[in-house]
């Protein structure tokens, strides 16, 4: 499983960082992999409301946010971690949140579904100095709307009051323990899934579609990765188009080499599609070969046929439980 943390405190040894680390360390200890994006160290311009994302489905502002969209899409669980600043999240994190409008547009204007949508979860981790009853309300509303935009179910808030000075969180009687407990609870169902690796030559069409269909249809039972033995520069635009015809959003995917799989990630099942010569063998896993034609440089109709074959094979495998 992949957990993405979005950290919004500007303080070097701030309470939020420590709380988020406790959460992420627990996920890693249990076998998940994690990445923390420190929003206060990234160049993320605020949304300028240019309307491009509503017309074209992407944000034209060229900055660090562009590398975050793929991570948001990959994540099984997204943690929004922020101190309370004026009843809300910090400005740095808010800029990141506002830029997720591009994902909102893909979902609500273009009507596309991210394959991970049904299973992704989101949690707000937060701290505030005062003990006021409503101190988290503003951040909670923002988090709720953010998680909806990025395609995640909002699992709630872990918030701690009267945490003010650097290090206060460590002296808190239960905050770190509760963060670890929450991590264990949220990670458990994801960590139980079978790991499936789809391999093709370029990781531009077939293996990307197979991973997306599997994730969309049964992402609660299967953790999917895909890769290629000769990864292309970019995914095939025709592949994106024919998947969009089925309402599936393939944006922000990049072909990946087999060597770029998360370190230590060991599949239970490997399915190959025309890359048998150079495919590596994972210890103890006998790859299954799917005989599917390579749609690279072919027509859109050809791509549609391959898409439908991939979908049928994924459905059969899920139905027979033999993935
Ligand atoms: C600009 C600013 C605004 C703040 N606004 C609030 C607030 O509205 N409510 C509150 O309870 N604490 C507020 N605080 C206090 C912080 O939330 C608190 O010190 C927190 O522990 C900081 O977390 P950190 O160490 O992770 O940065 C504010 C602090 C700053 C610097």
Overview of the structural elements:
With 323 residues, this protein is an alpha/beta fold. It folds into two domains: 2-191, Flavodoxin domain (Rossmann fold), CATH 3.40.50.360; 194-320, Response regulator (Rossmann fold). The protein is 39% helix and 17% strand. The protein contains eleven helices and nine strands. The chain has helices at residues 15-29, 52-56, 65-74, 91-99, 101-109, 137-150, 168-171, 175-191, 206-218, 237-245, 300-320; strands at 2-7, 33-38, 77-83, 121-127, 153-160, 194-200, 222-228, 269-273, 288-289. Strands 2-1-3-4-5 form a five-stranded parallel sheet, sandwiched between helices. Strands 7-6-8-9 form a four-stranded parallel sheet, with helices on one face. α9 (206-218) crosses α11 (300-320). The mean pLDDT is 95. The protein binds flavin mononucleotide.
Lay out the secondary structure.
Layout (H helix, E strand, L loop, with lengths): L1 E6 L7 H15 L3 E6 L13 H5 L8 H10 L2 E7 L7 H9 L1 H9 L11 E7 L9 H14 L2 E8 L7 H4 L3 H17 L2 E7 L5 H13 L3 E7 L8 H9 L23 E5 L14 E2 L10 H21 L3
Helix pairs in contact: 1-8, 9-11, 10-11
Bound molecules: flavin mononucleotide.
The site of flavin mononucleotide has 18 residues, from helix 1.
């Amino acid at each position: 499983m992949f957990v993405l943390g979005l950290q919004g405190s500007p303080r070097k040894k701030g309470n939020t960082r420590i709380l988020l680390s406790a959460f992420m360390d627990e996920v890693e200890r249990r076998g998940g992999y994690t990445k923390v994006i420190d929003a206060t160290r990234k160049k993320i311009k605020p949304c300028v409301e240019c309307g491009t994302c509503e017309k074209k489905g992407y944000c034209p502002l060229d900055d660090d946010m562009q590398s975050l969209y793929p991570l948001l899409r990959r994540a099984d669980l997204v943690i929004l971690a922020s101190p309370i600043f004026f009843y809300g999240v910090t400005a740095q994190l808010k800029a990141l949140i506002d830029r997720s409008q591009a994902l909102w547009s893909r979902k609500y204007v273009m009507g596309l579904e991210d394959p991970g949508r049904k299973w992704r979860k989101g949690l707000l981790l937060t701290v505030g100095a005062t003990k006021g009853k409503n101190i988290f309300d503003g951040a909670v509303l923002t988090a709720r709307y953010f998680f909806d935009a990025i395609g995640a179910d909002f699992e709630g808030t872990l918030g701690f009051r009267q945490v003010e000075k650097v290090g206060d969180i460590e002296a808190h009687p239960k905050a770190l323990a509760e963060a670890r407990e929450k991590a264990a609870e949220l990670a458990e169902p994801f960590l139980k899934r079978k790991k499936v690796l789809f391999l093709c030559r370029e990781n531009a069409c077939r293996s990307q579609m197979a991973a997306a269909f599997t994730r969309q249809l049964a992402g609660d039972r299967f953790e999917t990765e895909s890769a290629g033995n000769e990864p292309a520069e970019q995914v095939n635009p025709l592949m994106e188009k024919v998947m969009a015809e089925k309402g599936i959003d393939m944006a922000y995917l990049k072909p990946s080499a087999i060597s770029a799989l998360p370190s230590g990630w060991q599949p239970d099942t490997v399915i190959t599609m025309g890359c048998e010569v150079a495919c590596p063998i994972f210890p103890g896993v006998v790859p299954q070969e799917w005989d599917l034609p390579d749609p690279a440089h072919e027509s859109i109709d050809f791509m549609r046929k391959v898409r439908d074959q991939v979908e049928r094979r994924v459905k059969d495998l899920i139905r027979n439980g033999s993935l």
